Amino acid sequence: MHLLGQPFEQDAVELTLVRLEIRTESDYEDAAAQVWFRFFNKTGQDLLVEIDWSDIRMEDDLGNLYVDWAGAETTSSWVDSGESYDFNRYYTRRAGERSRLPSGAAYVQIVVDEFSRLKDARWHFDINPMLAPIAAPPPGTAKGVGEPWEQGELALTLENMDIRADSDYEDSAARAWFVLDNRGGERKLVEIDFGYFYILDSFGRRFSDWEGGGVVEYWVDPGDSLEFNRYYTEMARQRSRVTRGAEFVLLAVEKLGPIQFVQWQFDIVR
Question: What's the CATH number of domain 143-267, 2.170.190.11, 3.60.150.10, 2.60.40.10, 2.60.40.1240?
């Protein structure tokens, strides 16, 4: 089970649910929900992606099924090697008819039976999450800002972090600055997939990449550094803030080349 902003990867292709909107009764839109996806081609060759929209559906926790608003149709699109394909779809109980989620629904799940080389992907989204504080990570499992994690001759450091206040004009919840050092003796080609970078606040809310993820490649010479920064939000390109009252945030990187699951703890000072 994946969460909003978390990529699902199989056979060198990747699909991410980057944004989801549940419609209210007062909304003029007829569909019950709108969902945004981002697909990445990491195969090294151009792909013709054939999409049967009946293979993607939404389910709520009450057992209701929501299908594509347009009904059963098939489209195709070429996605170049190293490029992304963004798309969004509408979902309703019956194709072409207005519907809404029941007021008692607690969550929905987006299910993708098949998409290009992907099979059986699923994302979970809480409609009205009941937030309770989570425990801080055990000692030694999270470093502080400015401390590097080194694995496989690469060292990644979270150099700085900015958590937005409610009064800040920026829409993203946070911004983070990184430095990647090549501590080996050979030039390295580093692939960075920003879908595997995310923030958790001390209530367990997840904040993913503002752009919905992205894949870049850089050559880093021995002894050289690569500096980069990213913005984080709950839903791609939508304003959000870290939960009021959060005591800390964790910035996690699930993978970056040989670096596998590292995290930093940033304490919020009030």
Answer: 2.60.40.1240
Report residue 270's pLDDT band, with 50, 70 and 90 as the boundaries. Answer: low
Q: What is the pLDDT of residues 145-183, one digit of tens each?
A: 999 999 999 999 999 999 999 999 999 999 999 999 999
Query: What is this structure's pTM?
Result: 0.92
Same fold across 2-126 and 143-267? yes
Architecture of the domain defined by 2-126: Sandwich (2.60)
In whole angstroms, what separates CA 195 from the centre of its chain?
A: 5
